[in-house]
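User: Please predict the structure of the protein below. I'd like the answer in structure-token form so I can feed it into my own downstream comparison script.

Assistant: Understood. Taking the following sequence of 395 residues as input:
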Amino acid sequence: MTRLFIIGAGPGAADSLTIKAGEIIAGCDELFAFKRIGGQLSAPDRRLTIASCREVLEKVASSSSRTIGLLVSGDTGFFSIAKKVKDSLPAGIEVEFIPGISSLQYFCSKLKLSHEGLPVVSVHGRAMNVLGPVSYNQKLFVLTGGENNAAAVCSYLKKNGLGRLKASAGELLSMPGERIVTGTAEELAALTFNDCAVLLLENDSFADRHGPVRDSDLLRDKTPMTKEEVRWISVNSLRIAPSDLVLDIGAGSGSVSLEMGRKAWQGTVYAIEKKEEAFRLLCENRKKLGGFNVLPVFGEAKKALKELPAADKAFIGGSGGDLREIVLQLAGANPNVKIVINAVTLETLTGALAVFKELDFRTSVTQLNSARAVRLGAHDLLTANNPVSIIYGEK
């Protein structure tokens, strides 16, 4: 039986290989590596064959050797190609992982920081999904690459109001020419980095994603706001997952958007608002509460929806008379979208139920009647809020 050792080669330098990895390499009949790590580690073993992933899989599947080694960068359990290789091999090949030093371990040691509990995001070949994780964590480690290199990530942070974050970038880690730079995200955005640099972002003003948004936290002026009692029930009705893409239509001052942003802390909330004063407050509250994964969109909902990606969940607090058209657009983009509509009038309630019925959605309606105590002299008087119907619909 052929035995394949997938060996974590560390960040790049030959001397970052573990002793165990060196022993395995010395005992292999054949030794392969992918281009990036192979070009750096060709010196330790002249038998090393550099090949693509497809070529390696073909060679391993057809090989008569008893022991084969495959060098992969970093650690086999940390954003590694090791699992993909293992899952793509035919039956009859025994696979063993040999762990290595990850870029996370190496970089944090250089910065003299602990990496216990440090959240990690990879944007290498993936979406630029850093706004949520950096908004709700004090520190964030980012694996960059391709178009989403370190400078591009920092430029994206700057564009979205996070240019003053402390950022440390490391490139060519453990290799000749290793460079570690610390500054603000705005400063690093102006530099040039190697394709596979890593970043450590630090946000001392991070928001608490576990806590609710309170009415008293928000700037309001004269813009109507979904009150916290209604907001909490409405948002929880959507059962928002951390990585969801969420829409808030008729976002107003952003109270619901920011509440949903904490639930979708690894995802994105698009907050659509057409009134200038309300939109200004939305932008100010986003900055004040630190919910930078809430992206304000100015304009009419029907037009804005054509330019936005399909939503997993959507909240409609104001439709400007276009409720049916908006719901049909949401369902057309994603038939499995889950929608909550708030209604303070009977017309909105009946309209919501009608369009959900048209789409054959399963629906539920909750009417919330709440009151708050107001101090009058020596007494507290309960003052009623307007009743609100919360209508939920899903396929």
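That's the full token string. The first helix runs from residue 19 to 27.
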